[in-house]
Design goal:
There is one protein chain. The chain is α/β, with parallel strands linked by helices. 54% of the residues lie in helices and 12% in strands. The chain has six helices and five strands, in the order E-H-E-H-H-E-H-E-H-H-E. It has a five-stranded parallel sheet with strand order 2-3-1-4-5, with helices on both faces. Helix 2 packs across helix 3 (43-71) and helix 5 crosses helix 6 (134-152).
């Protein structure tokens, strides 16, 4: 079985995903790392080079390829956890694809905690963060999270 972790950037998908995969004795896949391996450049660089529409197309292709690879009957171990990017479920029917191929969990975190966490991240890691100013970042998070929340909440489960 595949488990997809979704939620806003900084919600803990990678951290929880590694621990959950270990508990399930399954694979752990960080979709952003897969995108970097596929494209040969960082997510930030790819995002700048192709802009969001181009990035989302690559993201969808890598998501589909990853699921196919993990579900391959020749795999000894087909269980796994995929930590998705914050926008992954919001574009190109990705959420429907994930729900059809596994169990989707939304990691819900308050905007204030997300802001604290994102301020600790190096700028090069988060291409969509427009500012390092805490007040402006919180406004950005509230706005984007408000638009994404209905999609996130369509997951099978939320925690």
């Amino acid at each position: 079985m595949l488990v997809f972790l979704i939620g806003f950037m900084g919600s803990g998908k990678t951290t929880l995903g590694r621990a959950l995969a270990a508990q399930l004795n399954g694979h752990f896949v960080d979709l952003d790392r897969e995108i970097e391996d596929y494209s040969g450049c960082s997510v930030s660089e790819l995002f700048k080079r192709t802009e969001e529409p181009g990035f989302r197309k690559v993201e969808q292709q890598v998501l589909h390829n990853t699921v196919r690879r993990l579900q391959d009957p020749s795999q000894v171990m087909q269980d796994g956890v995929i930590a998705c990017g914050g926008g992954t479920p919001c574009f190109r029917h990705n959420l429907s694809f994930m729900k059809a191929n596994g169990f989707v969990i939304y990691l819900e975190v308050s905007p204030e905690i997300l802001c604290e966490r994102l301020l600790l991240c190096p700028e090069r890691i988060r291409p969509m963060i427009p500012t390092r100013n805490p007040e402006q970042l919180l406004i950005f998070i509230r706005d984007l999270l408000g638009r994404r929340r209905p999609i996130y909440e369509a997951a099978h489960w939320k925690c």
